[in-house]
Amino acid sequence: xxxxxxxxxxxxxxxxxxxxxxxxxxxxxxxxxxxxxxxxxxxxxxxxxxxxxxxxxxxxxxxxxxxxxxxxxxxxxxxxxxxxxxxxxxxxxxxxxxxxxxxxxxxxxxxxxxxxxxxxxxxxxxxxxxxxxxxxxxxxxxxxxxxxxxxxxxxxxxxxxxxxxxxxxxxxxxxxxxxxxxxxxxxxxxxxxxxxxxxxxxxxxxxxxxxxxxxxxxxxxxxxxxxxxxxxxxxxxxxxxxxxxxxxxxxxxxxxxxxxxxxxx
Length: 265
Hints:
Blueprint: E1 6-13, E2 17-24, E3 29-33, H1 38-48, E4 51-56, H2 62-65, H3 68-77, E5 83-87, E6 97-99, E7 104-107, E8 112-118, E9 127-130, E10 134-138, E11 141-142, E12 145-146, H4 154-165, E13 172-175, H5 180-190, H6 195-209, E14 217-218, H7 219-225, H8 234-244, H9 251-263
Parallel strand pairs: 3-4, 4-5, 5-6, 10-13
Antiparallel strand pairs: 1-2, 2-3, 7-8, 8-9, 9-10, 11-12, 13-14
Helix pairs in contact: 1-3, 4-9, 5-6, 8-9
């Protein structure tokens, strides 16, 4: 994604991770979001003659933080000043500034001014960074899906997803994995009569056949096709009831049922 001031570029890592590189047309500085793999980041920096100035972390899993140490060592060797931001309640050794709900991160050299969202669920301290047109949400919301609940409760994750669903509908979603095609296979099992979902699945199939990324998505699209953002819809409630053989009294209970279904899909 490019606007008149900044560009967001995907650096592919591991099997399906996206490390997000934020750069500006006005200088050679760069920020990295969730750099789990230092080598691909260093290659990107060197190839494009860029200077690392900030690292933004959403949560503590190694495929999101594993590259920090080598990147900081490289920055020190080059006399670069790098600030590392991340969640206040997670144990990440290299953080310079810890963040919680409604804190702000300003990177004026990149024309970036983010507000922090607390998004417990995937991990207890997971956070996101959002501005007026994009959100870096780590492993909380994926296109067509959501993250596994490794540490949080279904109620926490549903609340976190609701926060994201309430962002402006044109907000671009920069999640950390290319999981879309697999997620849509499950979404179609949950909601087989969703025309928007069928159309999107066909678009994604073509993109992946051409090895193109399906990310970023956007909030408007996810509200149409993502079962985890649609727990209030009658069709999702019926699917959850059919899977669990139980009535779910609340939307978070519906979420818990379909999340359990996805875990065993």
